[in-house]
Write a structure and sequence with these properties.
mainly alpha; 7 helices; 0% strand; extended; disordered N terminus
Length: 165
C-alpha cells in the first residue's frame, strides 16, 4: 500500500525500462578531482611557440573555385558519399553538415574562416544535390528559419495594420 492507505497503481510500481542495468562502478569516478592550481596561467598560451596549430599556418586553399572543386571531390569519394547519405537519411540538417565540413577544413588548415563563409552556400548546394540525386528528402534548417521569418513579418504587419496587397 502507498501513503494514506491507497494502493499504488500497477503502472506506478513497474518500471517501464526493466532491462536497464547500471554498473555501480560507472557512477563513482575512479580519478581524483581536478586540482584548481594545475590549470594554465592566464596568458600562458602566448608564451608557447607560435604557429604550432594548423590553422595558424597559411591555408592550403585560398581561391573559392579551387576549394569548391576540392570539397566536391571529397564529397564524391565513395566512403564519404555513403556517410553523407546516411546522415541525410537520418534527417540531419544540411546546415549542420555544412558547418561541420567547413569548421573541420579550417581546423585542419585547408582554408581560412573568411573563405569558409564564402563556401557555405556552394557546399550546401552540393550536399542538397547529392541527397536529391539519391532520392533522399533533404532537411534544410535554413528553410524553416525563412518560413518563421515570414510568419513573424506577417504578425508584425497585422499588428501595425499593414496589409500585403
Amino acid at each position: 500500500m502507498a501513503q494514506h492507505g491507497f494502493a499504488a497503481r500497477p503502472e506506478e510500481t513497474q518500471s517501464p525500462q526493466k532491462n536497464i542495468q547500471i554498473d555501480p562502478k560507472a557512477l563513482q569516478p575512479d580519478r581524483k578531482p581536478p586540482n584548481r592550481f594545475s590549470a594554465p596561467v592566464p596568458g600562458e598560451s602566448l608564451t608557447s611557440e607560435p604557429r604550432n596549430m594548423l590553422f595558424e599556418k597559411p591555408p592550403q586553399f585560398t581561391e573559392l573555385e579551387e576549394t569548391t572543386e576540392f570539397i566536391w571531390d571529397q564529397l564524391n569519394k565513395r566512403d564519404n558519399t555513403l556517410k553523407l547519405l546516411a546522415m541525410l537519411d537520418k534527417q540531419v540538417p544540411v546546415d549542420g553538415l555544412v558547418k561541420t565540413i567547413l569548421f573541420s577544413g579550417f581546423a585542419s588548415g585547408k582554408w581560412t574562416p573568411d573563405l569558409a563563409v564564402l563556401l557555405a552556400k556552394p557546399v550546401a548546394a552540393m550536399i542538397m544535390s547529392i541527397g536529391k540525386a539519391s532520392g533522399i528528402s533533404v532537411r534544410n534548417k535554413t528553410e524553416k528559419k525563412s518560413k518563421s521569418q515570414k510568419d513573424l513579418e506577417s504578425i508584425i504587419n497585422i499588428s501595425t495594420g499593414k496589409t500585403n496587397g
